[in-house]
Backbone:
């Protein structure tokens, strides 16, 4: 049966359904460098940074932000904040982050010191809740109910 | 045990996230400048829940294994963590990929983040970092490590 259907290229022009595939040639999202990619980025914004520990962390992009001191007062959403000198830990040291929404704050002495000395705001959120808060925002869901953090200490 | 008595004084064990008892920001002198907001709670089918509000990000920084010039991305292993939800969430999504591939090289069913969510794609230049290095005690142990692990690249 399937052989009866000719490939779309052999379809007469008047029967073509003007799909968007031809416009693909015009799209090119590749950028030569991280610096060029983030050139229009502004401070005082909410930045979501992927990764868990050192796995799947966008280090090239984070380093590019570190090299742009004018991007500051960032609210960063990430599971944890790297380590001093690595990943998001660098942006803490350069004081570009003013608030963290995170679930794991261990392994980072700079983070702890800044939090306790009033240089950094922290919204401690359970790990699964952070993931779902991002997924909900992506899907256009404004809020959701979760049993996580109900009736537990800390 | 004074702390325990405080907690047992409530009908239920209260949580700091739920009741807004976590300091969000401290003052320089160590006193609390701002506490977290208490969360709304509700019961469904006899179980209690708290209301969490969605996050709407301005920018997302995303790490992927493969990406093409249309912005279609594929993750590998640990990259599957928060990256997908965050990539789809933010207004502007920047992607860094281990490998830039031709359009069509990633099978349609293997695309984890569709190009429509992505603004810019760059190639990763930073090497992968390892949080804690541990060493095999003898060469046999080294050879066996990862023997049961299949690579799906």
Residues:
């Amino acid at each position: 049966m399937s052989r009866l259907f000719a490939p779309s290229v052999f379809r007469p022009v008047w029967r073509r359904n003007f799909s968007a595939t031809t416009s693909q040639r015009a799209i090119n999202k590749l950028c030569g460098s991280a610096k060029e990619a983030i050139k229009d980025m502004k401070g005082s914004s909410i930045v979501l940074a992927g990764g868990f520990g050192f796995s799947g962390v966008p280090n090239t992009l984070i380093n590019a932000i570190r090299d742009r001191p004018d991007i500051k007062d960032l609210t960063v959403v990430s599971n944890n904040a790297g380590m001093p000198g690595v990943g998001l830990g660098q942006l803490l040291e350069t004081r570009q982050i003013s608030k963290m929404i995170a679930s794991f704050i261990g392994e980072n002495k700079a983070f702890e010191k800044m939090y306790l000395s009033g240089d950094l705001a922290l919204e401690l959120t359970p790990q699964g809740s952070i993931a779902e808060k991002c997924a909900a925002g992506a899907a256009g869901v404004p809020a959701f109910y979760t049993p996580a953090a109900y009736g537990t200490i800390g | 045990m004074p702390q325990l008595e405080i907690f047992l004084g409530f009908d239920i064990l209260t949580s700091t996230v739920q009741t807004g008892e976590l300091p969000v920001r401290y003052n320089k002198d160590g006193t609390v400048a701002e506490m977290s907001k208490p969360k709304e709670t509700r019961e469904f089918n006899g179980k209690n829940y708290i209301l969490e509000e969605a996050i709407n990000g301005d920018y997302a920084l995303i790490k992927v294994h493969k990406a093409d010039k249309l912005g279609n991305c594929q993750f590998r292993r640990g990259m599957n963590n928060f990256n997908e939800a965050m990539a789809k969430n933010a207004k502007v999504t920047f992607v860094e990929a281990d490998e830039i591939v031709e359009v069509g090289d990633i099978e349609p069913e293997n695309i984890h983040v569709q190009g429509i969510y992505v603004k810019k794609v760059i190639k990763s230049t930073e090497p992968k970092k390892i949080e804690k290095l541990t060493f095999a005690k003898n060469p046999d142990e080294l050879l066996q490590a990862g023997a049961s692990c299949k690579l799906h690249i």
Q: What stands out?
A: The CA atoms of residues 41 and 47 of chain B lie 10 Å apart. DSSP finds four helices and eight strands in chain B. Residues 2-8 of chain B form the longest helix (7 residues).
